[in-house]
């Protein structure tokens, strides 16, 4: 797939998406958001993709936020349309059947932090910095940051980070539960690839069902979430992978799961 602001690479079921506007620190302009929207729709229909890695071009930034040169010309109406495009693009990530890992190689500020938060989990370089600096621009986060950050780290911590526009380093972000792993810059992509390969070897139906159960379940009460889990557990048996996985265990051999 060819894009103007994205690099798309696919190898053995693992897709790597590189946001590619390094001169603007990969800032999310309307065109890039639209390309991500198109790409996520295509991924949703591609049963050959097991895992997606999302990263930023260059050694400085994952994404330094929404493109401020576009924000500077917006009014209330166009800002709502812009926020809507960004929010719906990011909402697609949770709906994809395959895991999406944010590989945060540098600044993840504003919309960049929001994009990382929208992914299923985050691996970060020791050099990465996270923050929602919108208040310094007279704005608030508009791509889900007030919602996803509060859900991830709690309302009080989210409000402190938003109100002060404080930037935090990867290790602090990990301590807050924002980031799963912090790695030296030269090992970041390699480790993310290893995790992706581990996931890619699992049964794709069971991975998709686990992802959906977590994302849907976290929004509802425990009883309702557990009910969804039970239904998803039942659905696992509609795939030959459940028979293969359990038989392989009993036969003391390695399971070979289906490709789709
Ligand atoms: N939008 C547009 N351009 C950006 C940008 C952004 N968010 N962030 C950086 N750039 C551009 C700079 O304008 C600069 O371009 P020129 O070389 O043409 O001048 C280039 O990227 C390099 O940036 P700096 O020279 O500023 O690099 P630095 O190392 O001195 O600083 C930085 C790096 C701390 C990340 C700084 O660039 C910065 O603070 N960026 C803005 C961060 C921000 O406020 N993000 C929130 C945006 S609002 C938002 O995201 C709203 C929302 O939720 C929807």
Automatic annotation (TrEMBL):
SUPFAM superfamilies: ClpP/crotonase. Keywords: Lyase. It comes from the Bacteria. GO terms for biological process: fatty acid beta-oxidation. The keyword Lyase applies. InterPro entries: ClpP/crotonase-like_dom_sf, Enoyl-CoA_hyd/isom_CS, Enoyl-CoA_hydra/iso, Enoyl-CoA_hydra_C. GO terms for molecular function: hydro-lyase activity. Belongs to the enoyl-CoA hydratase/isomerase family. This is Short chain enoyl-CoA hydratase. It comes from Desulfobotulus alkaliphilus.
